[in-house]
Amino acid sequence: MKNIRESWVSRLAFIMAAAGSAVGLGNIWRFPYIVGTNGGAAFVVIYVVIIFVIGYPIMTTEITLGQKAQKNPIGTFKALAPNTPWWLVGALGVLAGVVILSFYSVVAGWAMAYFFKTLSGEFTSQSDTLNIFLGHIGSATPPLLWHAVFMALTAGVVGLGIVKGIGQAVKYLMPALFVLVVLLMLRALTLDGALEGVSFYLRPDFSQIRAQTFLDGIGQAFFSLSLGMGAIITYGSYMRKDDDVPASAAWVIGLDTGIALLAGLAIFPAVFALGFDPEVGAGLAFITLPAVFAAMPLGNLFGALFFLLLTIAALTSAFSLLEVVVAWLIDEKGIHRLKATLITASIIFLLGVPASLSMGAVELNLFGIPFFDVLDQLQEKFLLPIGALLTSLFAGYVYKAHHVRTLANEHAHTLKLGAWFEVLIRYIVPLAIVVILITGIYATYFA
Ligand code: PHE
């Protein structure tokens, strides 16, 4: 039997799924500490500009291309530019899906383990949270088990398909996620001394802004909005042909940025109120926060809710990462969804094993850095920027910017793309990405 391609049941279902893809570890864990260490509100202002100028045009382009072709990323480029090598851009996306999910799932596994650790009261104000964290990620079995559980959950949902699987799951998980962020924010904001955290988080400090800030902002924007690897093309391909693109893209971006900001307001006021150091960077979620929660009334409960939030956010992102690969196997290779899901999830699980072990259990370095970081840097420095660059060049010059604009506007009601869209996608977006690519590579390998 030929697979009949599914569609989201409504425009809201698309928005929830795509926002679910976008809102992930990047928002709850990474965005707050980047803001905290990059000039507070000054960074937020720059980030919002980047979102408008670079994020929005790529988001609308990816949705439009997918909606037009009704195919996975490889199939989309094949359908829109037959007999050209452009399908390779889609292939890069499929590769990125495997690479990103393999280490993403490991981190999501840490969050799940931490949910139970906080709930059971493992952390007290005496706890050495740094060494507990290093001990957890540096051990072999528990992180791998959680990685397996997380991949199984992800595969279970993706295996059920677009309507019954991903569509249903995000319908409950996204509102739950929103309630959790708001709840945690209210808890944090009502602690004594919370306002100091708000002002640290949002006080603009323009002296912290340098060229690197813009580069970090662009990198964060791609990752956070799930752009440059075909996840949004894939989700767009399940949109009905008469669904509104420009407004949907605006909703996804608004939700992603809004939730990232709220996450910071759930974290920094608490960090300050309980007298912890806000500028610890990446260790904030797993090292500082367990200590912060341990020092707070009902901390076990709120701590557990925080790690539940992190888990849900990661899960709805993981659906989209797995779906990119699964959609390719279904559309192009004619493999049944369940089988495609099982094969892909197993491969991703296996790739995640050395990533997890490289965090301390086993010495597993490649080019002198732990395998986990190799995967992360591969997506951040190459896969996403190159994917986004090629997508913008394809849309701007091959498929033609005015054509994308016309298609996107076809069923638009409130918001329509103007001529500015063509200028952005043809000139500004590619230029900005080339600059980050070159400086990124230079800084990593030659400086
Ligand atoms: N946007 C997700 C996050 O912020 C990560 C992601 C990247 C998901 C690319 C899908 C595709 O955590």
Structure report:
The chain is an all-alpha fold. The protein has helices spanning 11-22, 25-37, 41-69, 73-80, 87-119, 129-138, 141-159, 162-189, 194-202, 211-224, 231-237, 245-273, 284-294, 299-333, 337-357, 371-398, 401-409, 419-445, and strands at 365-366, 369-370. The model has no long low-confidence stretch (mean pLDDT 94). Residues 21-22, 24-27, 100, 223-224, 226, 229, 231, 317, 320-321 line the site of phenylalanine.
List the helices and strands and how they pair.
Elements: H1 11-22, H2 25-37, H3 41-69, H4 73-80, H5 87-119, H6 129-138, H7 141-159, H8 162-189, H9 194-202, H10 211-224, H11 231-237, H12 245-273, H13 284-294, H14 299-333, H15 337-357, E1 365-366, E2 369-370, H16 371-398, H17 401-409, H18 419-445
Antiparallel strand pairs: 1-2
The chain binds phenylalanine (PHE).
Rg of Cα set: 21 Å
How many E-type strands? 2
> What is the helix tally?
18
| Morphology | globular
Sheet with most strands: 2 strands, antiparallel
Bound molecules: phenylalanine
SS content category: mainly alpha
Residues in β-strands, percent? under 5%
Q: Outline the low-pLDDT stretches.
A: none
Mean pLDDT: 94
Terminus-to-terminus distance: 56 Å
